[in-house]
Each structure stands twice: as structure tokens, then as C-alpha cells.
Design goal:
GO terms for molecular function: lipid binding. This protein is mostly helical. It has a domain at 36-92: Plant lipid-transfer and hydrophobic proteins (Hydrophobic Seed Protein), CATH 1.10.110.10. The protein contains six helices and no strands. The protein has helices spanning 2-30, 43-47, 54-62, 67-72, 77-80, 83-91. The chain is globular, with a radius of gyration of 21 Å.
Length: 99
Amino acid sequence: MAKTTSSSYLFVFAALALFAVMMMNEMPVSMAACQVTQLSPCLNAISSNAKPSATCCSRLRSQVPCLCTYARDPNLSKYVTNPSARRVAQICRVAVPRC
């Protein structure tokens, strides 16, 4: 009986540990830090026909969960919904969500 109880505790502990790891892996996506300033490396590419830098593309990928929030903000929407911003996203191979 004691062996079964120990095995049960071990199973519960392993399940909780797995759940914790899964939650930690999901946090960056589900709790993304929406900071539009992270997209500042993209300003040159958006405001001109310049090619976006690798830093721009990396930051754009990290901010994808936030793009709809930016698009709804009257002060920011012109930067994320205009054709130049879409061009930058396309060059960076970033799928822009439909908001």
C-alpha cells in the first residue's frame, strides 16, 4: 500500500511539474509585454522603402500578439495598418492577425 501511495505522489508531482513547464513556455505568448517602443527598429522601414533590419523583424515577431491592440489605438493604428507596415511584415515573413 505504501508503494502505491508513493507512486501516486510521484505521479501528481510529475504532472504538476509538467504543467508548470508548459505554463512557463506559454507565458511569453499569452502574457506578451505589449510595448510599442519595441518596434522602434522598424520605423525607418515603415516610413521609407528601406529594407527592415533583422532586429526589426525579430521585434515584430515578438510583438505579433500585440498588433491588434496597437491597431485599435488611434495614436498607433496608422503605424501598424498602413501599406508600408504590411510590406515590412511581409518582408519579415510575419503573419499580421486579422483584428
